[in-house]
User: Fold these one by one.
Assistant:
Number 1:
Amino acid sequence: MAHVLVTGAAGFIGSHTVDRLLAAGHAVTGLDNFRTGRRANLAAALAAPRFAFHEGDVAAPGALAALVGTVRPDAVIHLAALVSVQESMTDPDLNYALNVHATHLVAEAARLHGVRRIVFASSAAVYGDTADFPLRETTEKSPISPYGAAKLASEAILLGHGAAFGLTVRCQRYFNVFGPRQDPASPYSGVISIFDRRYRSGQGVTIYGDGQQTRDFISVHDVARANLLAATAPAVASGVANICTGRATSLLEVVGVFARHYPAAPAVVHGAPRTGDILHSLGAPAHADAALGFRAEVSVETGLGELIRTG
Ligand SMILES: NC(=O)c1ccc[n+]([C@@H]2O[C@H](COP(=O)([O-])OP(=O)(O)OC[C@H]3O[C@@H](n4cnc5c(N)ncnc54)[C@H](O)[C@@H]3O)[C@@H](O)[C@H]2O)c1
């Protein structure tokens, strides 16, 4: 049994990661300040004896180091972040504090207190708007937002600490994650959670453009399993890996699944394409398989079916 500290534990990916770690028999300490997460996401975990929760800010001076010093986890999974690309554009200072400086605090807390492994929530946003598909870990990185730049900088900060101080660091570049507990209230949330909320309330959806734009949608259950493997699998080396399926799904295909579940829903409306929207995104998944033995298992059809049934 390992003891894993999860930052951003009350969030969408964080809460599924906590549940997956507990189900695998590990002890988990969760940290979150509820900036975008919800206590309700941790309902099951809070009833588990091997889970402890701390409300706090990873970016507050000394707070994380004090917690790590008390808890002494074997691994830290660092998911807490300012998660909106749009907010990183309107408030780059806050993006720097929460997505760059906080990463440094995680690295330092781990170094000071002998944590052996750090898993970091990076993003396909590090690649920016490139047409070099599928995106491989070696593809040129050209972030086009403060958010993407911060994720790339965080990878470098953590890998540098890892190399210098003997920590194993796994940077996981998640692609488009979907599934239960994703907050649809934010206009910048994943498109699937927004579609889900609209279909659920009997409204139709608008697709900007012809709907042929594609994404590499990955189920949150697969992402949680990738986090479990990265944090606890034996003999894992430091590195960076895409956490993706390698399959491109168009928005029209996504809407097709919803339409089958909601036959009475209004027809899709097409709006003008939005400037700045990336048309395609697709990752190459082989590296995560080689490094962690991770392959995505949940198809978009199955994952959407679960989301539609359970919310
Ligand atoms: N959802 C995706 O498709 C996706 C894709 C790529 C990367 N990511 C990354 O995965 C991670 C988790 O994202 P998510 O989709 O679960 O979003 P989320 O908003 O549901 O989770 C983020 C969590 O971090 C918490 N948090 C934020 N700032 C904090 C702070 N200073 N101190 C303590 N807690 C704080 C929030 O309250 C929230 O619970 C983030 O790092 C995000 O950038 C997500």
Number 2:
Amino acid sequence: MTEQPYTHVPVLADEVVGLLATEKKGTYVDATLGMGGHTARLLDALPTEANVLGIDWDPEMAGVAARNLGKYGDRVKVVQGNFANIDEITAREGIRSVSGALFDLGISSLHFDKPSRGFSIKHDGPLDMRINPDNPLTAYTIINQWPYEQIEHLIRVCGERRSGRITKAVLEARRARPLETTAELAALISRVAPARGEKVHPATKTFLALRVAVNYEFDNLTRGIQKIMPLLKPGARLGIITFHSLEDRIVKETFRLMAKMGGWELVTRKPVAPSEAEIAANKRSRSAKLRVIEKL
Ligand SMILES: C[S@@+](CC[C@H](N)C(=O)[O-])C[C@H]1O[C@@H](n2cnc3c(N)ncnc32)[C@H](O)[C@@H]1O
């Protein structure tokens, strides 16, 4: 299949700029730079003294962002790294405090649309799913080497009610030969756990579970929040956009705990969701939720 040029429309971009850009001349952190959409919107909204440190774990994505954001010159510094190490990254860049930070979680359209990255149910590719290709764990390893109990548990906690049936089928299939591709896995799941009127593909939750495990997504999120907290200046805000209920629950509970501890105030008591117009223009935004907290 020919791979085309990739675009990514930043979700809730007006809301991010409106809620996070509280200081005109500050340094902001975009912890999930992607193709640079939110960073561009922030830089456009702020005077030229404001700048952004943009981080992405995926070296390919960091390269795309650096190209897309070239016109902003030294107002933006692009770094490849894991936001779970945001304290080390900012220290290396000589940044001791920041005026705001954004985490727009998950993966970008490039990841979904590029078959070779192995995230897509729609396009056939290798069972990979690594955001950072240096990561030792792949979806292939989980599917072909993990024991029954671990796979079943993983996909069950990610909301798949037919986890037992799916895992059994995976183990049966791999006894004959390893499962190699996303299409093979998606077809197997469709066969043993066909859709029962749902609009989404029956393999959706299994694919999400694999991606979350391969990239330690929940662990990174918890560590990322812990590490950014001391870096935010008083009055600075942290905004997190989530795309599924498991990560939203982590953000909701962590923010509530922070507010209870003192020194933090919830800016959004309920998460901000995209408007109908945004969902109509960008289907990917439909499950987005933005929560914002401010350091007092
Ligand atoms: C939803 S996209 C961000 C899109 C971006 N806001 C834009 O406007 O283009 C999420 C990005 O976060 C990156 N990412 C995921 N986990 C990460 C981590 N632990 N550390 C740094 N970047 C991460 C992914 O590679 C992906 O590019």
